[in-house]
Amino acid sequence: MPDVEALARELDEALLARREIPSLEKTHGTFALTDAYRVQERGIERRLARGEKIIGYKMGLTSAAKRAQMSLELPIYGVLTDAMRVSGELRVGDGVHPKIEPEIAFVTARELRGRISPEEALAALQGVAPALEILDSRFAGFKYFSLPDVVADNCSSWRFVLGPLSPPRDTGSLRMRMSIDGRAAQEADSNAISGNPLESLVQLVGLLPHPLPAGSIVLAGAATVAEALKAGMQIALEVEALGSMSVRAT
Ligand code: OOG
Ligand code: MG
């Protein structure tokens, strides 16, 4: 049994100090994925105690490209708080080694729980949007060792930007293009995300140990690998039928 409190504190202090730490599994021994989610939960409680509010969840490693980039096999989830949401401008100096990736986001209109179908998920939506997630791992060199490491670290969550909200619709088979300083950097079909992004929402609701509240923002996971983010970059994401959005790294 890992010392959940100690691991959560170590990660949280690294986050606050912008300090890199080695893999928890290497320094503290292996621990189960269920314990990793307990560490994540404890870390989130620490943020809530500082006044942050939970506004949604993110799915990670839902595309083959991301699983290959990180050499990990299983979809995972993390928590989004209001302090992670940015718009327009992003201060990269607040992070350690941030990376940016193209996603699709859902906003729910009704509470969802347990095993649901994609149709039920679609019927419970308030809207859909293009989204950019900015990851920043607490682990040295953005290299963690295992799935428990990254789950404990709230799945490398750091910041996210939500694009314009469209009415609920099927978000399958849409072209996605992320460009950096006007040049195409990553392109994919939205079905690269879980076979259909809505499947990520279905999976999240099945994985969560509690209902997903109405009004939650849910990131479906990146369609492509993430790109290193540097100050001065202008990043844009265009998703067919959903429109475009951009953010400037300062
Ligand atoms: C883990 C988080 C993955 C995604 O969209 O696949 C993720 C990581 O890449 O460090 O957010
Ligand atoms: Mg992501």
Q: Could you give the topology of this structure?
A:
Blueprint lengths: L3 H14 L6 H5 L4 H17 L4 E7 L3 H7 L5 E6 L7 E2 L8 E10 L9 H6 L1 E11 L11 H6 L6 E4 L12 E6 L2 E7 L7 H11 L9 E3 L7 E2 L5 E6 L3 E7 L1
Helix pairs in contact: 1-3
Fold and architecture overview:
- By secondary structure, the protein is α+β, with helices and mostly antiparallel strands.
- Helices cover 26% and strands 28% of the residues.
- It is built from seven helices and twelve strands.
- The strands form two sheets. Strands 1, 2, 4, 5, 6, 9 and 10 form a seven-stranded mixed β-sheet that branches.
- Helix 1 packs across helix 3.
- It starts with a helix and ends with a strand.
- The mean pLDDT is 97.
Using brief descriptors, characterize the structure shown.
single chain, 250 residues, alpha+beta, five-stranded mixed beta sheet, globular, binds 2-oxoadipic acid, binds magnesium ion
